[in-house]
Predict the structure.
Amino acid sequence: MDYKKDFFDRLSDNSLNLNNYELILAEYIKNNYKKISFLDLTDVSKILSIETSIIEAYISKIGYNDFEDFRNIIRDFAMSELSSTDRFEFSLININPKINNIKNLVIKKEISNLNKLMENFDESSFYSILEEIIKAPEIIVVGTRSSSIIAIYVEHIFNRIRKKTTKIISGATENFDKFPLFDGNALVLAIGFARYPKETIRIVNFFKKYNYKIVSITDSVMSALTPLSDIVFTIPCESVSITDFYATPISVINIIVVLLSQIDKEGSVSYLNKFEDIAKDYGFYF
């Protein structure tokens, strides 16, 4: 399904009997949808000199609950098209360059992501992923570029609860030297967000070719990871300017880890005790 084409067709659907203001809105959105993914209702109202009530009526007419709901649909496909320069330039619209303003903007955005995660948590998909992790003899976590930081954390924290995990954080050929060593029943946990690094897609596609079970943590059902995955868990991951936000993906990983450790309490305690003995012998901490 071509979500973007369907969305654009809907904006100026003849059956809706749109008035002149609404036709102006439709045309502006089509030509500036990337920019609108960073604007709020008031911004659009000022730019087009159209009352917010008229914009809200139009949004309702084309089938959306409110401007935020509408903007989120745009973000689903726009974020994968935005360059770093686009993100930087569009974000300047709403950024007042003072410490308190930036602090509030960044923290509120992370809180907003977390609130959306709470409100839209797909328990069915989550438990399916949890079941796959529990029964898998090994986890291969794939995350490149900005997601490599999350993959490194997953490898570290999964191994601490006795879940054998190996990370792949680049498309370098030496990563595939390990391939013959992977268990054929290993689970591939892919992590990737817009703009979906090609390295990640190539690696996951490679595992797909060899019939590995693949689950993905990503930001949209329109993610490039979706067609390659057996199970997809989507989470909100909106950012500010050129930054990458990690509160929601790390929270999801931590939920998995806490649940796994509770399911296998005895094994977790045994492994952690061994870790503490090693940490003491080698003086890991002060």
